[in-house]
Amino acid sequence: MERPQHEVAISHDFRISRNEVTQAQWRRLMGENPYSRDRSSPYYNLPGMAERITRPNHSATVSWLDAQEFIATLNAAEGGPDHRLPTEAEWQYTARTGTKTRHYFGDDSNLLSRHAWFGKEFDAGGHHPVAQKTQNPWGLYDIHGNVWEWVQDWYSADYYAESPATDPQGPASGSERVVRGGSWHSTGNGWRSASRRDYPPDYRGISISFRLVRNIG
Predict the structure, then answer these.
(1) Cβ(88)–Cβ(196) below 8 Å
(2) Where along the chain do its domains lie?
(3) pTM for the whole thing?
(4) Per-residue pLDDT, 1
(5) Of 20, 15, 16, 14, which is closest to residue 132 (Cα–Cα)?
(6) Per its UniProt entry, which superkingdom is the organism in (predicted)?
(7) Which CA distances in Å does 195 have to 37, 40, 155?
(8) Residue 38 CB: number of other CB atoms within 10 A?
């Protein structure tokens, strides 16, 4: 659920990866293909789906908990707690790139195909290689479409109506985590910069991945 725009400030510098973590990056660090983890969704059994969503240059589709495991392993390997998921506010900041329009490129959804993979049915679709569409003005690929992206925050429909004006961290607790950005099978307004959904943190979908953030300084 969305609410009217509510301005917040980000007081710190950070880096965000230009695309989601790929299957190849996951396998290199974790020693497995993320697809090998439990897949209870019936959509994984559609003809050709497994092949379409497990190519090395495609996003790693995992649960929020899986993403946290990847991050912990990466931080241990590099000797520091630097990597993490973006907060929802950080994700929104880098998605909008200073705009207040439906998309970072404006309000004309007819231009969306230049910037996003979208509008495919489950039985014929699947996500695509990362970084194939136009990047946003800050150099990020696939902010709209292709796969939803986990963020750190617990979900609340009303949180941003009363959130801190600076560096909001999301609700202190909850039952579901936020995903942002829309995916290859989103419809309607699913690709708007403001679009958000929620899923249990252990949910492994065929269209949810994540990108990493690091603090600077």
Answers:
(1) yes
(2) 15-215
(3) 0.88
(4) 43
(5) 20
(6) Bacteria
(7) 28, 26, 13
(8) 8
104's CB contacts (< 8 A; 6+ apart) are: 95, 96, 97, 115, 136, 137, 143, 144, 193
pLDDT at 118: 77
Alpha-carbon distance 58 to 41, whole Å? 19
Q: How is 132-155 classified by DSSP, letter by letter? A: -SPPPTTS---SSSSSEEEEEEEP
Query: Residue 34 contacts by C-beta under 8 Å, 6 or more apart in sequence?
Result: 23, 26, 27, 60, 61, 62, 66
Strand partners, 83: 214
pLDDT at 116: 75
Average pLDDT of adjacent 10-residue blocks, the chain of 217 residues: 61 91 96 78 76 86 96 93 92 79 67 74 76 88 90 86 73 90 72 79 91 90
Helices (H), the chain: 23-30, 49-52, 64-78, 88-96
CATH for 15-215 is 3.90.1580.10
> What tens digit of pLDDT does each residue of 23-68 get?
999 999 999 888 777 766 777 777 777 777 788 999 999 999 999 9
Instruction: Return the structure tokens found at 174.
Output: 């909850």
Residues comprising the chain, all counted: 217
| Token pair listed for 36 | 């090998």
